[in-house]
């Protein structure tokens, strides 16, 4: 199989350097660069590994790059590595890495939520709510409050929470004095609301802006 280059690209060597030897992966936040190298060295000769970190805290974002010496090695890593790494070819360095990371993270979040939410009982992490009562210390409901430092755009927030089945409404409210974001989300079942809170509380949307998601009293018996 030969990978064709676009006419807009430079020489074949430039293309090979920028687009065909570097892969982008989703990894556990506990991984070090040595862990990353250890997991991917079986597919070929690694030139370098790097982990993307939060510029403020220095913590791993759970994303990383692996650069191989040959395009065939990068292709093999993408094809053969565990699916949980979500390995893809990285964007060239001269393109905006932040927008690439955001698109990659958002797309995979969307795939996770769409592909794995139903049935809930098949999700090990969701089942842990049933098995470990101490995981939920607050009364649950079908309604959620979402707070952000930045104002929300109705359509974008609706699209994010609509990834969990059963969204009934998304009501974005604006505070002209603080310019922060506040919204009320309601699902058709408490199970959907629990899952949405579990997945999206602390989620960075947009990157660098963490969402705070808590339950709101909806007037129903939460013991259900």
UniProtKB/TrEMBL annotation:
PROSITE patterns given in the database record: RRM (PS50102)
Pfam families associated with the record: RRM_1
Keyword flag Kinase: no
Keyword tags: Repeat, RNA-binding
RNA-binding in keyword set: yes
Signal peptide span: none
Location of the RRM domain: 21-95
One GO MF term attached to the UniProt entry: RNA binding
Alphabetical list of SMART domains matching this protein: RRM (SM00360)
Protein name (Swiss-Prot/TrEMBL): RBM45 protein
Organism (species): Falcunculus frontatus
Gene name of the record: Rbm45
């Amino acid at each position: 199989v030969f990978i064709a280059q676009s006419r807009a690209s430079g020489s074949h060597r430039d293309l090979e350097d920028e687009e065909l030897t570097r892969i982008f992966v989703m990894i556990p936040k506990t991984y070090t660069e040595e862990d990353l190298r250890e997991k991917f060295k079986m597919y070929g000769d690694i030139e370098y590994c790097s982990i993307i970190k939060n510029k403020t805290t220095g913590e791993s974002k759970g994303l990383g790059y692996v650069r191989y010496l040959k395009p065939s090695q990068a292709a093999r890593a993408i094809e053969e590595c565990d699916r949980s790494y979500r390995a893809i070819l990285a964007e060239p360095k001269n393109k905006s890495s932040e927008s690439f990371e955001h698109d990659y993270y958002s797309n995979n979040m969307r795939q996770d939520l769409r592909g794995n939410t139903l049935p809930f009982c098949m999700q090990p992490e969701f089942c842990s709510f049933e098995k470990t009562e101490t995981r939920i210390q607050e009364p649950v409901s079908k309604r959620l409050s979402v707070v952000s430092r930045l104002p929300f755009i109705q359509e974008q927030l609706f699209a994010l929470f609509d990834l969990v089945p059963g969204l009934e409404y998304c009501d974005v409210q604006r505070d002209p004095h603080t310019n922060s974001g506040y919204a009320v989300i309601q699902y058709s079942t408490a199970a959907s609301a629990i899952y949405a809170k579990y997945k999206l509380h602390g989620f960075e949307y947009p990157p660098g802006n963490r969402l705070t998601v808590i339950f709101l009293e909806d007037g129903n018996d939460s013991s259900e």
